[in-house]
Amino acid sequence: MSDWNRGTIAEFRANEGRVGGAFEGAPMVLLHHRGRKSGREYVTPTMYLPQENDPDTIYVFATKSGAPTNPDWYRNLVAAGNATIERGTETYDVAVHEITGPDRDRIYGEQARRYPGFASYEQRTAGIRTIPVLELRRS
Are 5 and 55 in contact (CB under 8 A)? Predict the structure, then answer.
């Protein structure tokens, strides 16, 4: 785990799910997932978009900051089909479902509208990969 992740995780837990810096005010979640090959448990901080009509559903975005490959956490979540998240002061299990097609484009577009960095990530990956969107629903 990187020092940045360690620091973000500690700050998240110390402040009831809130962090400062570049992510101040942004909705953050900690994803707990197991390596699909190693079986090791990992915790990854990431931003999310709440589903407007269902408080038990959020969307996360496998941007990897616009890198040409998907992040390992994305592959781990898809392979497992479930995970545990920390959201605010709650920790709970979620079912994982990948969103594709027009629904994916609509959801990603909304995240990019709210947080322009996501539009930049999509520009960097254009023609290389489509950034995956995962739905996490409380199970």
Answer: no
In this structure, are residues 59 and 105 in contact, taking their beta carbons and an 8 Å threshold? no
The CB-side HSE value for 64 (13 A sphere, CA atoms) comes to: 15
Contacts of 103 (CB under 8 A, 6+ apart): none
Question: If we measure between CA atoms, which residue out of 115, 79, 92, 87 comes closest to residue 30?
Answer: 87
pTM, two decimal places: 0.96
Q: For 32-58, what is each residue's pLDDT tens digit?
A: 999 999 999 999 999 999 999 999 999
State whether residue 97 is helix, strand or coil: strand
Tens of pLDDT, residues 50-84:
999 999 999 999 999 999 999 999 999 999 999 99
Which residues, in sequence order, are bridge partners of residue 59?
49, 135
- What is the Cα–Cα distance from 107 to 104, expressed in whole angstroms? 5
Q: Are 10 and 28 in contact (CB under 8 A)?
A: no
Please report, as a single letter, which amino acid is at residue 3.
D
User: Rounded to an integer, what distance in angstroms lies between the CA atom of residue 13 and that of residue 58?
Assistant: 19
